[in-house]
Amino acid sequence: MYLATVHNINHTEDCVLSLPDMAGSLVCSTIPVYVYHTTRQSKSSRYSDRDFQVTMHQFFPGVFFNFETVRIAGMVFSGGAELAECLDAVGAIKDNDPESWHSAWAQQAQKAEALAEEARNSGNKIAAKNALLRASNYTRASYYMLPGDGPSAAIPLFDENTVRPLQIEYEGHKLPGYLYLPPSWRRLPGRKIPVIVCNSGADGLSEEIYFFAPATAVELGYAAVTYEGPGQGLTLHREGLQFRPDWEVVAGAVFDHLESINAEEPELGLDLDRVAIWGTSLGGYFALRAAAGDERFKACVAIDPVHDFWDFATTQIPKPVLASWERGWISDSVIDTVVGITTRFVFQMKWNINLSSIIFGIARPSQIMKAMKAYTLRLPGETAC
Fold this sequence. Notes:
Blueprint: E1 2-6, E2 14-18, E3 26-30, E4 34-37, E5 52-55, H1 63-73, H2 83-90, H3 98-121, H4 125-142, E6 163-170, E7 173-180, E8 193-198, H5 206-212, H6 214-217, E9 223-227, H7 233-237, H8 247-264, E10 270-280, H9 282-293, E11 299-303, H10 309-313, H11 319-326, H12 332-343, H13 347-360, H14 365-371
Parallel strand pairs: 1-11, 8-9, 8-10, 10-11
Antiparallel strand pairs: 2-3, 4-5, 6-7, 7-9
Helix pairs in contact: 2-3, 3-4, 8-9, 12-13
């Protein structure tokens, strides 16, 4: 098993993750930052710790809207956005105003769809595909702050029929997903195609994940799979399936489906002896659970993974209050009341609670946080540092 984990990626200029024996190449993630240098020199060394400082441009005063804007702008490299379109949207958004966020990104989606139609009419297949992919991503983004359209229109515009919608068997349900195949000229001569299974997290969609990993993976000769498991995307909203901590069961169903595809279509040349699983944030937790619980996965890439959901969720609760609650000195109702009051003034907490209540199928904040205790990578008896 090859394992690569990356933490605090927002403060990294270049992060290269090597998967030995996967395809003889690298899986890369590069986060752009602005760097400036001061000329102050210390006595003990040529440069002091303050000589090099790294900072990122802030689109909004608040952390939440700024982070989600950077998330979208970070997809420029893989075709999920264009910088000019992002800046145009930012100019129309008010910080912590979900309605202005929705309107601005919906407008960009409409503009991108119009560009796609123009490109189709002129016979420019590549420009049409790229514009439709951006329109899909902007539509997803437009609804993100509210408590889209998928890229299905772009699928026929990919080269050589390299995108296949999937319906993955899972405990009597169907998990929607996509299989992305590298075009013939990107495949390694004389070798089968290694595969990367890409997890979404708490708030992503399989279509969005395309811009994070598969878009680059197919250019490097990999096949890639995206899908939506319990508590995610269509599986949540159509099937009503909530999250589960033992994600190795879900990822195992995805692997089973790959085996079925390989048996029915051996000419695809999928190499199921070289399958990696990938995820970021909570998707990183899912990837690590899958890799630990299913030995068929031979490599794991976990980018800034959630190690313990309870610790992550309670970071903004004062430690004395948290300790008193865990000891039973403060009731669940008090926690519910405090969180309820806070959500009236802090939009991000309101958004977090609304999302969590949907993906866990639980209404009360206190019970949501207790449910999060099951999502941990700690061994039995291991305590927080």
